[in-house]
C-alpha cells in the first residue's frame, strides 16, 4: 500500500529532516509539504487516502491546535492519524492535543535516537492503525450494503396486505437490526386462508436466514393441501431434526410459531410456544385469549402439537404478535404479555373501526414502555404484529 503523508512545519529544514527520516523507513511513500495549517486542509480536500499527518503545533496563520480541531470535527478526515510535534517547552500543548485526538507526539529538536528509532516507530505504528481502521471501515460498508439488501429481500417476502377473499390483513414489522428472525405469512389455498407468525431464536442475519427457510417450509406444506395446522408444525419439527445435526449446538432453527387455517368461518389453530393470540369477538364486543400452549419447533424431537378450533363471525379479528413487543429479553418480563391483553381490551373499539391504527397505537405504546424502563432503548428485539379481520 502506498502511503500519502502530510508533513506540516513552517520551517523548511524541519520538514526536510522529517521526510528524510521517514523515507528511509517507508520507501515508496509520497510526502506532501505544508508550511501553514491552511495548506494542510487544502491537501485533505485535494487528495484521497491521506494516511498520516505529521503536524507542527506552532505555525503562522492557523496553528496546529486549530488544524487538529478541524480535522477531528470532519467525518471525512477524523480517522486519519495525526502525530504532533513542538518544542521541548510546549509539553502542555502536546498534552492538550492528545486529548483532542492526536495519537502521538515527538519533541524538537530530534536526537540521534529519535531519528533512528523513535520517530520511524511512531510513524509505522500510526500507519498500521490507519490500515486497520481502513479495513474495518471498508468491511463495515460492505456489511451495511449486505444488511440493506437482506432487509429489502425480507420485506419482499412479507405477505401482501389488503383484501383477501375471507379476511382483511394488516401487518407491522420492526426488525431490531435491519433484518430479523420474526416472520409472518398469509396465503389463500383454495377456499382456505392459511396464516402463520413465528419468532426465530436470536435476531440478525442468521435469524433472518432461518425465517426465510421457515416461509418456504410453510408454503410448501400448506399448498400441498389435505393437512391441518398441527400437521404443519409436526412436519416442520420433524424436518428440522431429520435435516440438521443439532446435538450439543446452539441452534437458530429453534422457533416459536402459531399457525391457523380459516375455512367457512371456522378457525383451526395450533400453538408452538408463541405468546397467546387475542381474538376480538364483534358480537360480544369482547377480547379473549387463545391460551393454548405448545412446544417450540426444533426443541424436542418427538414434540406433539394439539389442534383447536373456534367459530368466527363477520367483524371478528385475530391479533397476533411476537414477544419483542412487550419483552426486552429478560425472563422476568415475559409475563408482560398480559399488558398486550389489557391494552387490546381497552382499545377494542380501534380493532373494530381501524385495525391499522390499532397496530400503530399498540406499537407506539410499547415503544414508550421500553423507553421508560431504559431511556436509551426502544425495541431491543424484533417485533411482528399481524391482524386478520373476518369479512
Structure report:
- With 391 residues, the protein is of the alpha+beta class.
- It contains ten helices and 16 strands.
- It has helices spanning 12-25, 37-46, 64-72, 91-100, 112-157, 205-223, 229-243, 337-346, 348-353, 355-373; strands at residues 4-8, 30-34, 50-56, 82-87, 104-108, 162-163, 167-174, 182-189, 192-200, 255-263, 266-272, 278-281, 286-289, 308-311, 317-321, 383-390.
- The strands form three sheets. The chain has a six-stranded antiparallel β-sheet with strand order 6-7-16-15-12-13. Strands 2-1-3-4-5 form a five-stranded parallel β-sheet, sandwiched between helices. Strands 8-9-10-11-14 form a five-stranded antiparallel β-sheet, with helices on one face.
- A hairpin with a 2-residue loop joins β10 and β11 (266-272).
- α1 (12-25) packs across α5, α2 (37-46) runs parallel beside α3 and α5 (112-157) packs parallel to α6.
- The longest helix has 46 residues, at 112-157.
- It is elongated and about 90 Å long.
- The chain starts with a strand and ends with a strand.
- The model has no long low-confidence stretch (mean pLDDT 86).
Amino acid at each position: 500500500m502506498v502511503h500519502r503523508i502530510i508533513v506540516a512545519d513552517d520551517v523548511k529544514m524541519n520538514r526536510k529532516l522529517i521526510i528524510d527520516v521517514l523515507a528511509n523507513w517507508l520507501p515508496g511513500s509520497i510526502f506532501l509539504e505544508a508550511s501553514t495549517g491552511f495548506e494542510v486542509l487544502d491537501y485533505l480536500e485535494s487528495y484521497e487516502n491521506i494516511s498520516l499527518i505529521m503536524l507542527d503545533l506552532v505555525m503562522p496563520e492557523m496553528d496546529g491546535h486549530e488544524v487538529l480541531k478541524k480535522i477531528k470535527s470532519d467525518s471525512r478526515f477524523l480517522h486519519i492519524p495525526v502525530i504532533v510535534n513542538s518544542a521541548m517547552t510546549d509539553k502542555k500543548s502536546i498534552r492538550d492535543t492528545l486529548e483532542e485526538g492526536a495519537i502521538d507526539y515527538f519533541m524538537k529538536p530530534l536526537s540521534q535516537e529519535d531519528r533512528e528509532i523513535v520517530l520511524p516507530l511512531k510513524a509505522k505504528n500510526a500507519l498500521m492503525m490507519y490500515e486497520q481502521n481502513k479495513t474495518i471501515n471498508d468491511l463495515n460498508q460492505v456489511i451495511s450494503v449486505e444488511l440493506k439488501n437482506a432487509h429489502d429481500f425480507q420485506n419482499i417476502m412479507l405477505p401482501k396486505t389488503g383484501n383477501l377473499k375471507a379476511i382483511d390483513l394488516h401487518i407491522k414489522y420492526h426488525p431490531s437490526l435491519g433484518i430479523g428472525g420474526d416472520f409472518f405469512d398469509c396465503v389463500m389455498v383454495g377456499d382456505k386462508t392459511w396464516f402463520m407468525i413465528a419468532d426465530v431464536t436470536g435476531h440478525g442475519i442468521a435469524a433472518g436466514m432461518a425465517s426465510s427457510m421457515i416461509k418456504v417450509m410453510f408454503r410448501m406444506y400448506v399448498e400441498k393441501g389435505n393437512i391441518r395446522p398441527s400437521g404443519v408444525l409436526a412436519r416442520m419439527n420433524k424436518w428440522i431434526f431429520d435435516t440438521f445435526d443439532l446435538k450439543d449446538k446452539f441452534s437458530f432453527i429453534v422457533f416459536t410459531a402459531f399457525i391457523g387455517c380459516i375455512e367457512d368461518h371456522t378457525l383451526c389453530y395450533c400453538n408452538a410456544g408463541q405468546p397467546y393470540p387475542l381474538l376480538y369477538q364483534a358480537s360480544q364486543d369482547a377480547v379473549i385469549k387463545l391460551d393454548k400452549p405448545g412446544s417450540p419447533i426444533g426443541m424436542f424431537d418427538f414434540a406433539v402439537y394439539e389442534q383447536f378450533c373456534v367459530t368466527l363471525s363477520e367483524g371478528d379479528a385475530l391479533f397476533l404478535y411476537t414477544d419483542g413487543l412487550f419483552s426486552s429479553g429478560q425472563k422476568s418480563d415475559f409475563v408482560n404479555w398480559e399488558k398486550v391483553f389489557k391494552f387490546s381490551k381497552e382499545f377494542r373499539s380501534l380493532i373494530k373501526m381501524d385495525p391499522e391504527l390499532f397496530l400503530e397505537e399498540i406499537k407506539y405504546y410499547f415503544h414508550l414502555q421500553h423507553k421508560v424502563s431504559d431511556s436509551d432503548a426502544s425495541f431491543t428485539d424484533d417485533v411482528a404484529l399481524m391482524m386478520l379481520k373476518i369479512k
